Please model this.
Amino acid sequence: ERLVKVSKSCVRVARLFGFDPKVAFLSHSTFGKPISKNTKHVRDAIDLLKKENLKEGVSILTLNRPEVLNSLNKELIDALLEAFDEIYDDNSIRSVIITGEGRGFCSGADLAGGGWPSDPKWSPGESTANAMEIGLNPLVRKIVECPKPVVIAINGISAGGGVGLALCGDLIIASESAKFKLVFGPQLGIISDVGASWLIPNLLGRARANGMALLGEDIDSNKALNWGLVWEVFPDNELKEKAIEYAIQLANGSITGLKAIVRAHDNALKNTLNEQLDYERDTQRILCDGDVFK
Model:
């Protein structure tokens, strides 16, 4: 009964995103079990994330599961976490780009189980919470807390948890074909996650956040730009080039100060004006005594 319920949900979402529901069902049918090496849709983790380091100090991370619109399985998340650990420690890397391979940025968490540890005694909710605790939530924190500026270059669809991933960087740009879709409520009867339930209302306000989440309508790139979800929109064939230009510009700056700016803006979301004035004072005391300011 549990498998039928989960698989039907996966097929509905798969059709929304335009990929073969058989791929979704195949993955769901392996939920919580070791996946055979003979399964043709499973590739070595090293192939799931393309990594390229430019001489200008930019690391480009490309989600590489285009056959399922770069949905996040455990192997891909582990590869991203490992890549960010390396970025944290590598002083030659001064900025990061995250983008997707193919016609989509990210269709969200791999509802199919995607190699997540599970237990036959766990309910669907317990399995989901475990995947969030050991994978999805640490990934969002790792990106947000990265000491190097992170540029997100959104190519095509961002859906479900992919919306959260798309918006958790420091500078967000998109292609003309980009669109955002929150499918959690209308299709699955659950809340937005991967940070989307925090990011969307803080970026757009309650009315638009509720509209996106309750109705599940597509938000195209022009609307996303007008609403303030993204900084800028470019033709599809220019997106990567523009992302690299921005990343190089950030890499050439004071990355400590640039990240402090982002943290100050995030901090302002929970502070009163008086508290934020104190925060500015305390932060400037530190930064103005630093080597870069001098």
Summary: Confidence is low (pLDDT under 50) at residues 1-9, 17-42.
